[in-house]
Each structure stands twice: as C-alpha cells, then as structure tokens.
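Researcher: Next sequence.
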Amino acid sequence: MKSHDLPVSILLATLNGAAHLREQLESLRAQDHKNWHIILSDDGSIDETLEIATSTIEADRLTILKGPQTGLTQNFWNALMHVPKG
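Model: Next structure:
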C-alpha cells in the first residue's frame, strides 16, 4: 500500500470549540491525503461544537464520542482509545 493510501485517524479533543472548529475542519478536508477519519471526543460542549462538526464533516468520516469530562488529557486519551487497530 502506498503512503498516500494509508488510513489516518485524526484525533480532536473538544470543549466549547465552536469559535475555531469550522476553520480547522475545513482545513483538514482540503488536504491532499483522502483516506482519513476524525475521532472527536467532546467533553460536554454547550456551544455549537457538535453541530459544526456534523454539518462540516461527512458522517462516514466522523466519529463523535462523549468525553469523560475530567480534563483535556483524559478527553484526548478517550479519542486515542478508539483509533482502529491494524
């Protein structure tokens, strides 16, 4: 398999990230590499974070997880634990 075909998991740990999330997601969509999937662990956002994610990224490229709500490190770890093996 060529490197440009390898699957890439992009991990995002969010909490009320609406102000910059759409720009970040659109930047990811614009990359040349096309075999990617976003794993977003949200730690209890009360803004439009989840709505922006679901309206910007196609459902088959996005997994949304409920974060543990114990801080950034554990929220990122939650996303990391859902990266497909192999």
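Model: Helices lie at 18-29, 49-56, 72-80. The first helix runs from residue 18 to 29.
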